[in-house]
Amino acid sequence: MSLLNLLEEFVMFEKIRKMKNKKGFTLVELIVVLVILAILAALLIQALTGYIDKANKEKVVAECRMVVMAAQTEASEAYGTLTAASASSTTDDAAVMKQMADNGKDLIALAEVKGKFKITITDSKVSQVIYTNSGFNVTYNGSAYDVKKSADDTANTQDKYLVGTNEISTK
Question: What is the pTM of this model?
Answer without folding.
Answer: 0.65
